[in-house]
Amino acid sequence: LNTGAQLGLDRSRLYRDHLEMAEKEAAREDGIDYVIISTPNYAHYAAAKAFLQQGINVVCDKPLTVTVEEAEELARLADEKGLLFGVTYAYSQCPAVKHAQQMVRNGDLGDIQVVVAEYPMGSLAAPVELEGKMPWRMDPQYTGISNCVGDIGTHVEHTVSYITGLEISELCARLDNFGGKNRALDTNAHILLKYKSGAVGNYWCSQVAIGYDNALTVRIFGTKVTIEWRQEDPNYLKVVKLGEPIQILSRGNPYFYPEAAQMSRIPSGHPEGFYEAFANTYRKFTNALLKLEQGLELTEDDLDFPTVKAGLQGVKFVHKCVESSKKGSVWVKFD
Fold first, then answer.
1. 160 has pLDDT over 90
2. DSSP character string of 82-110
3. pTM for the whole thing?
4. Three-state SS for 305?
5. Residue 78: which of 314, 313, 307 has the closest Cα?
6. Average pLDDT score over residue span 53-77
7. Which class for 258: exposed (0-12), middle (13-18), buried (19 or more C-beta within 10 A)?
8. Measured distance CA(39)–CA(33) in Å, rounded
9. Average pLDDT over residues 63-74
10. Half-sphere exposure of residue 243, counting CA atoms within 13 Å on the CB side?
C-alpha cells in the first residue's frame, strides 16, 4: 500500500496482495487488461493462477514456475479460459534474432547440424548473497531447484529454440555450485543435447565467469551457412556462407527479412537492444490482446511472442538438467 501511494496511484486501486488485486480488478468495469508478474520465482505460480482464475491475461517473468506441474496447470488454465499468457524471454524479440529465425525457416542454412550457445556472466563469482544482494537467488525456497540454469540457462534454451525450431530429445548436464562455500544451488552448468532432427548441441551457462556481463551468444552451424548472434552486440548478425567471406548484417537495413525489419524502431547504426526487445514483446502481446477482445482470430504472427508454452518448456528444461546432473551427468530423455 505504501509503495503504491508513493507512486501516486489511485488509492482505490491499492491492494494488499495479488488475491485482492485479482478479485477487485476483475469486478471493475475499467479493470486491467493484463497483469505483469516480476516477483522472485516461487511467487509466480500463485499470482498467475489467481489472475487467470479471474479471467485476467498474464505476462510473467521466467522461469515460469518452480515445478513442472505448476507450469502445466498454468498452461491448462490459460487454454481453458482463452486467455493470453506471455513469458518475458525478451531476447527472442530482437530484430537480428528474428532475422536468424527467418533464415532457418526459409532454408538459408541448409540442415542444422550443430548448435553451440553460451551465457557467461560473473555476477556471482563472489558470495554476494552474504552481503544482502539478492540472497533469495541462492535459496531453494524462493528460487526452486536451480539458480544458474533457471536464471540464464533458460534464456539459452529459449533463444535456440526460437531461432531453430529444434526439439530436444535427450540431454546430459553437469551443474556445479562454484563461487562460495555452502551454496545450495548451481552457479555453472555444462549441457550436451541431442535434438529430434539428429542435430547436436552444447550449452554453457555460468554466473562465476569473471570478466563477463551478459554475454549470451548463439552459434548455429548448418550445411550451407553458419550464423552467430551476440546479445551484447544485438544489432548485428554474423553470417558465413560456405566458401564465401564473412558477412555482418546490421539491423535496420533493407536486406533484413520483412518480419525482422518491422521490429526495428530507429535507423541502422543507432543502438537498440534490451529495452526495445522488451517493448517488442509487449507490443506483440498487446496487439494480440486487442484483436482477441475484438473477437478476431489470431494468426501465427500475432502470437509471435514467448507464450506460456515456452515458459513450460523452460521449466522442463531446468528439471531435466537437474535430474541428469544428480544422476551423475547421465543422458535423460526430454519428453
1. yes
2. T--EEE--GGGGSHHHHHHHHHHHTTTT-
3. 0.95
4. coil
5. 307
6. 98
7. exposed
8. 19
9. 98
10. 2
